[in-house]
């Protein structure tokens, strides 16, 4: 789960991480009070969407830049009005862009140097890892590709927790070595680590982290993602969820206990198990197709959930074919068959459908499908299924 920058900065403040003062607003009537709350004439105006590259983005009406640094309160009001309700397109939003429903006014900070700092889970080592780089303000992926030597990784054993030597290693990697800088970094890194653990974060990122000419260390930007599997422990984080930033199909899927992620292809996948779902998408690509989604119905889905999965799949206008790939361990192939039949009765199944069933109650499931009268194609293996669906949509 993602949240907006202004929400992330509120969490930063809660955990003692220094950020510029700011005010987020959702309507023009609030603009004046928000701008007046900012000290000084120089103000940063930021569009709030769940996507990176906002500063280099372009609005659909031609207005350029989803992040503006302006020299007066009047200019801040004008920039905010140009952004609010407008659609911002960045390299992460895709061509459709995202509508800006919140504008964030913040104090402008003088910058002496920019850095990159983040903490996330290293799945290879099963440990949190600090990622630090002197190349702040840039895409970390670009830094990793072009100058990997400028990225430092400091792992923290969760059994032992964060120690002073970890914090010194991060600070020294960034070249922040004076007594005052080490003191500030000690507090900042403690807050960052505590936030990461206390809120079950998947990522906490500051890009850029800056030093000011006066020597202060400030988080100029903030990005926080959460482990969705842990949200049941954090109703206060769930309350920050902005459904307007999420794909409606993904929202509907979550309500039914389904794991769904929309993709850009035209072959929908209905699979049980995340590993099998990823393998299914890979083999579709292998045979020249493009998956339209990741959809995992899980090991204990019922007929109603399978029917809902089909309804969500078919609500995507890009879907030209469906591949059902089920391995019945806990899941019964009979349940899947009943769900497919039920879906066909409730939604218009007007695209090619290939079904591959294997495992628990597979004979019963195949028999139900054979006797249903549905127009579908059976497959004996995953490769056979992927090859057939690709061929069918290319006819």
TrEMBL record:
Biological process terms from the Gene Ontology for this record are: succinyl-CoA metabolic process; tricarboxylic acid cycle
List residues binding ATP.
46, 53-55, 109, 114
Its required cofactor(s), as named, are: Mg(2+)
The EC number(s) given in the record are 6.2.1.5
User: What's the catalysed reaction?
Assistant: succinate + ATP + CoA = succinyl-CoA + ADP + phosphate; GTP + succinate + CoA = succinyl-CoA + GDP + phosphate
Which residues take part in binding Mg(2+)? Answer: 207, 221
ATP-grasp domain residues are 9-235
Q: What domain of life does the native source organism fall in?
A: Bacteria
MF GO annotations: ATP binding; magnesium ion binding; succinate-CoA ligase (ADP-forming) activity
Record's keyword annotation contains NADP: no
The protein's annotated pathway? Carbohydrate metabolism; tricarboxylic acid cycle; succinate from succinyl-CoA (ligase route): step 1/1
Gene Ontology cellular-component terms for this entry are: cytosol; succinate-CoA ligase complex
State the signal peptide span.
none
Claim: DNA damage is one of the keywords in the record: no
What keywords is this UniProt entry annotated with? ATP-binding, Ligase, Magnesium, Metal-binding, Nucleotide-binding, Tricarboxylic acid cycle
SUPFAM superfamilies cross-referenced by the UniProt entry: Glutathione synthetase ATP-binding domain-like (SSF56059), Succinyl-CoA synthetase domains (SSF52210)
Any binding details for the cofactor? Answer: Binds 1 Mg(2+) ion per subunit.
Q: Report residues binding substrate.
A: 272, 329-331
The free-text function statement in the UniProt record for this protein reads:
Succinyl-CoA synthetase functions in the citric acid cycle (TCA), coupling the hydrolysis of succinyl-CoA to the synthesis of either ATP or GTP and thus represents the only step of substrate-level phosphorylation in the TCA. The beta subunit provides nucleotide specificity of the enzyme and binds the substrate succinate, while the binding sites for coenzyme A and phosphate are found in the alpha subunit.
Report the NCBIfam families cross-referenced here: PRK00696.1, sucCoAbeta
Its quaternary structure?
Heterotetramer of two alpha and two beta subunits.
Indicate the family of this protein: Belongs to the succinate/malate CoA ligase beta subunit family.
Q: What is this protein called?
A: Succinate--CoA ligase [ADP-forming] subunit beta
Q: Which organism is it from?
A: Ruficoccus amylovorans
């Amino acid at each position: 789960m993602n949240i907006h920058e202004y929400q992330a900065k509120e969490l930063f403040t809660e955990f003692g991480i220094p950020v510029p003062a700011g005010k987020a607003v959702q309507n023009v009537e609030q603009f004046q009070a928000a701008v007046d709350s900012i000290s000084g004439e120089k103000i940063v105006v930021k569009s709030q969407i769940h996507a990176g590259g906002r500063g280099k983005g372009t609005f659909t009406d031609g207005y350029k830049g989803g992040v503006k640094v302006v020299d007066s309160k009047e200019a801040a009001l004008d920039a905010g009005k140009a952004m609010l309700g407008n659609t911002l397109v960045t390299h992460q939003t895709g061509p459709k862009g995202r509508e800006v429903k919140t504008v964030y006014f913040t104090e402008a900070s003088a910058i002496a140097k920019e850095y990159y700092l983040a903490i996330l889970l290293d799945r290879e080592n099963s440990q949190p890892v600090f990622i630090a780089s002197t190349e702040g303000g840039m895409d970390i992926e670009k830094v990793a590709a072009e100058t990997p030597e400028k990225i430092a990784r400091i792992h923290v054993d969760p059994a032992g927790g964060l120690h002073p030597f970890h914090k010194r290693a991060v600070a020294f990697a960034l070249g922040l070595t004076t007594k005052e800088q080490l003191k500030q970094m000690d507090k900042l890194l403690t807050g960052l680590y505590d936030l990461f653990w206390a809120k079950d974060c998947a990522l906490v990122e500051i890009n850029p982290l800056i030093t000011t000419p006066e020597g202060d260390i400030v988080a100029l930007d903030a990005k926080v993602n959460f482990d969705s599997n842990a949200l049941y422990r954090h109703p206060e984080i769930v309350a920050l969820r902005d459904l307007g930033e999420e794909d409606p199909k993904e929202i509907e899927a979550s309500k039914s206990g389904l794991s769904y992620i929309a993709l850009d292809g035209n072959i929908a996948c209905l699979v049980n198990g995340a590993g099998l779902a990823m393998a299914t998408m890979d083999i579709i690509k292998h045979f020249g197709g493009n998956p339209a989604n990741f959809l995992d119905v899980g090991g204990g889905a019922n007929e109603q959930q399978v029917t809902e999965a089909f309804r969500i799949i078919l609500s995507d206008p890009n879907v030209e074919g469906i591949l059902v790939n089920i391995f019945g361990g806990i899941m019964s192939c009979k349940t899947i068959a009943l769900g497919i039949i039920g879906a066909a009765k409730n939604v218009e199944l007007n695209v090619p459908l290939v079904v591959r069933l294997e495992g628990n109650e597979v004979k019963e499931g195949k028999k139900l499908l054979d006797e249903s009268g549905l127009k579908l194609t059976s497959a004996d293996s995953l490769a056979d299924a992927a090859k057939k669906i690709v061929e069918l949509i290319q006819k």
